[in-house]
Amino acid sequence: MNRKNSLKTSTPLKRKAPLRSKPKEKSKFEVSEIKTKKKLQNKFSKKKLIEKLDEVFSKYIRLKYADSRGFCRCISCGKPHYWKEIQCGHYMSRRYFSTRWSEDNCRPQDVACNIFNQGNIQMYRIGLIKEIGEQRVNLVEARAMQETSKYGEFELNAMIQHYTKEVLRIAKEKGIEL
After folding, report:
1. What does each C-alpha distance from 30 to 7, 33, 34, 41, 116 come to in angstroms?
2. pTM of the model
3. What angle (nearest 5°) sits at the alpha carbon of residue 100, between those of residues 44 and 163?
4. Model confidence over 83-94: pLDDT tens digits?
């Protein structure tokens, strides 16, 4: 009996501090290799690739619809603007990745219509029907609502390269300075 009671009342042994193993020191080469891997991962992250593609695609759309002097008209209100002062407007919102970089979905649009007038969608649709026809506009709407697209890094890089070449080609053809 005496032995059982002593086991219950005795406190278990505890360490005052946890055991710590000494960290393995890394060579300068290993440290620099880890830093470059992190830089590459950060440089080519999917979010950054999407931002870069948005930038290049916007230039492409604005240059594609610009005249030889670099002016293009807003699809909603028809006002002319220099290609650097106008934006790439989307008929179906950019949140729909299936039509985000679709050439049928995007046209030059001034800041007043695109941002302050929430895209001026009614006039945008009328202008888009005049350009590409109602059947293709309906196709854009259906694609945005029904398709889901997930782009990998390879596809994003390929589109960036394609539209970068197109921007340079169009700028050279029209004699527009980038």
Report:
1. 52, 5, 6, 17, 52
2. 0.74
3. 60
4. 999 999 999 999
